[in-house]
């Protein structure tokens, strides 16, 4: 589609958004524009929050298309101005409040994940394929674990998931579940940060940490299954793994996005391309941190508990995996996003 046709097709929506923003911001009306648009400068209509949210979403889509197709700069600048004004209006006074957090959780994070689906697919393959390969290798030959971990580590894995321990999982050097929760938070976020920040090294670091975690996890899972610790190990990881493993892959996808921006900056300088990619990826990072905190809480208070039957853990774990997939795949779709943004407008 040519720029002229693109502007002719979508221009009325941009004009409508601009007029709505002018009314909301109480800007003086341009009578010349009113005449050109064949609309009398009468009494302004009341602001429709749902319509404003819909126009804002459409303008964001048009801006992305304009940038991707390298349309003339005046067209892109107009869309940038409109989307920035709409964003400020919709989220005013809520940038650090409950409404902004709700917007992040219910709309921005799942949308950002779906928008970066190709990076997510690459990160998933980098994690899952090595995990399956090393898992099968260690299952059919438990001695293969020594290619990945030391003999002392292998013995520690046996002890952690044997029937003699009071609680399952990593050694409880802390005295309480709350202390272990703090430990898991720091440990999990550290892994996520490595996968994300590794993207700054042209994506090589992100690839390495995704592969490393996939290889190590697969090897441990295959080894413990072969050693007869199937129930203890899988009932331990199934619930918190829904959030932890997904978050690690998402962090790796965000890191790959940074690396790709540096390798293929397109029409921008590498620094500008990195800045733009980081602005998009940071939304995913916020969600990753939240998921890792949830995973740490589950691991500390639920996964390691022996008083919970394995069958119950499997059922809850399956529900958590379904929830994560449904949340990332369905939440924040246009209709829901428009309703959330409309509530923010009316709350403002």
Keywords, separated by commas or semicolons:
76% helix, 348 residues, 13 helices
Q: Could you spell the SSE succession in H and E letters?
A: HHHHHHHHHHHHH
Q: Overall mean pLDDT score?
A: 84
How far apart the termini lie comes to 38 Å
The fraction of residues assigned to DSSP E strands is under 5%
Q: What percent of the residues sit in helical stretches (DSSP H or I)? A: over 70%
Low-confidence region ranges: 34-44, 344-348
- Described by the principal axes of the CA atoms, the overall outline is elongated
Strand-pairing-aware structural class: mainly alpha
Q: What is the number of beta strands?
A: 0
Radius of gyration: 25 Å
SS summary, helix count: 13
Instruction: Please summarize the sheet with the most strands.
Output: none
Give a structural overview.
It contains 13 helices and no strands. It has helices at residues 3-24, 31-36, 49-68, 73-90, 98-115, 117-140, 151-160, 177-197, 204-226, 230-263, 270-303, 310-330, 334-347. Helix 9 packs antiparallel against helix 10. The relative contact order is 0.13. The model is unreliable at 34-44 and 344-348 (pLDDT under 50).
